Amino acid sequence: MHILTSVLVFLHIIGASLIIGLWVAHFRTPKVLPGQFHASLLMLVTGLILVGIAEMSGGVNHIKIAVKILLALGIAIAAFIGQRKHKAGEPISTGLAHAVGGLAVINVAVATIWH
Predict the structure, then answer these.
(1) Which residues, other chains included, contact 17 with Cβ-Cβ below 8 Å and sequence gap of 6+?
(2) Residue in 59, 51, 29, 40 with CA at minimum distance from that of residue 108
(3) For 60-79, what is each residue's pLDDT tens digit?
(4) DSSP of 52-113, one letter per residue?
């Protein structure tokens, strides 16, 4: 079980890194790329599995998990909207692009600072 948890945490961190990295790479000309949407799904799915594993082995902070799930859903929804606009060639608002990256940074902050 420890190996599975480690692999899931690794994939969860890779998802966050992709979202934030692509956001920083396109900071001057804000874009939401399909990779950010796929990375947000990776974060959401691995996070939910990790919560399930944590629930089996002991208690978790349900308020923290609820906040992280809401942030992850916000990232996924914003990334979905942004990548659809990117694929259609429509302009993407700066706020939408920065919402994807900013929410990912906040999600990482909640994960690391809130104990």
Answers:
(1) none
(2) 40
(3) 999 999 999 999 999 999 99
(4) HHHHHHS---HHHHHHHHHHHHHHHHHHHHHHHHHHHT----HHHHHHHHHHHHHHHHHHHH
For residues 108 and 94, give the distance between their C-alpha atoms in angstroms, rounded to a whole number: 21
Tokens 């929804």: give the residue: 77
**Residue 84's CB: how many other CB atoms inside 10 A?**
14
Please check whether residue 100 is in contact with residue 82, taking contact to mean a CB–CB distance below 8 angstroms.
yes
Rounded distance between C-alpha atoms, residue 39 and residue 43, angstroms: 6
Q: Is the pTM of this model over 0.85?
A: yes
